[in-house]
Amino acid sequence: MTTLIAYVILRNESGTNWILDLVLFNAIALLAVISIFISPIPDDHLSRLGVALAISLWTLGSVASSIDTFFKLPFAINLDLVAEACYAIFYPLALFGLLRALRSRLVSRSLEFLDTLIIALGCTTILAAFLIRPAMTEIDGSNFQVFLAILYPVGDIVLFGAVLTLSIIEKLSVRNLFILLGIGIYALSDFYFLYISQSGGYQFGSLTDIGWLIGFILIAEGFWRPTNEEQSTRTFNPTIATIALLGSSAILAISVLQPAYFPRFIIAPAFATIALSFLRMGVAINDARNMSNEQILARTDELTGLANRRKFMTEFESFVEVSGSVLILDLDGFKPVNDTRGHDVGDQLLKQVARRFERVIPHDSLLARLGGDEFGALIKGDEGRDVALALRATLSYPFTIDGVEIVLDVSVGEARNSPGQYPTDLLLRRADIAMYEAKRSKTGVVTWHEELGVTGSRL
Prior knowledge:
15 helices, alpha+beta, single chain, globular, 2 domains, Alpha-Beta Plaits, 64% helix
């Protein structure tokens, strides 16, 4: 925000110049990207990546537009087309990342990614397709220019509507409020830009452009706020994706019956929406089959949705054949909360702990609830201690249940494994002993070493 204020002051004093409007203006957007990545709140990495890529592409489009304004390049590159492409790709990436950032937990990453693409591509294409004919009588330019003029406000509406709806469903937290305000200001800036551009009153480098930057800054600030962890696990509702499929099918049907009704460039995204819908169907069937197998094996902890002890022990039999670390985690401060505030609060607390742990566990690792307030993790490779520290860091800020803040810590014991070197019971004993040492010494994380011995395990 300080950089933005400096830009505004300098802009008022010196007017339009390439250093301010090409370098400093776009540097502010990149600072928002950096802020998203360095946020200390443990978060889903794909949400950060999606939003960061979206803002980065928007910045690339802004850079291309600025260069096209200030300089005449000696080689033939249509910078205006580059800018338009970057601005267009901003919407599906932002939709994907922001919806992940707002949701407490996601069941299927593949389904969610495909649904996001279908909704973003399908809804935008449908609205643009049916608005393009009346718009052609009001907006000067080619069919493609008219399409782009419609695409941006439609994208803003879809993006803001999705964020607003999910914010209401998940209950309006501080994070959701920052993101909602950021998207709202971005969309308003877009609408104002399009309005004054059509009326011929837009001037490059106008101070009204800072609305986009303010939107990005607010979104980045949202990533510094914790998610609403009191919500239960939700699956992605495919209703809107189904509407997008039906609308795209209608566009293709109308194009067959009346080939000249829609411009040709409308047909490609409509066809792509239908193709993605069939791909989604295959992924959903595969996910359902896997979920059914998992339910039959009864290897899921009913309270947290994590793997249970049975799943953990089954996976552990093959885990001893690879290099890695076994982690045993025991919550500190949970029992007093459970005893004084009741098992219902204790259960909610365990669910929230599980959600935080899930956000930082590597995708090829196993996280399980072993019972009570004890968890276990199987981490492949040599990053076991780093993961242990990250798991502990997720509890560095308090939980909120029924308006009351609750502070917890965790003691983590790590035992490292070489392929086939140690039997399962020995590794478990070592990890358990290390966990007790971490609890006794209040150091948080302890890696087993020879001085600790091999007795005293509860497993």
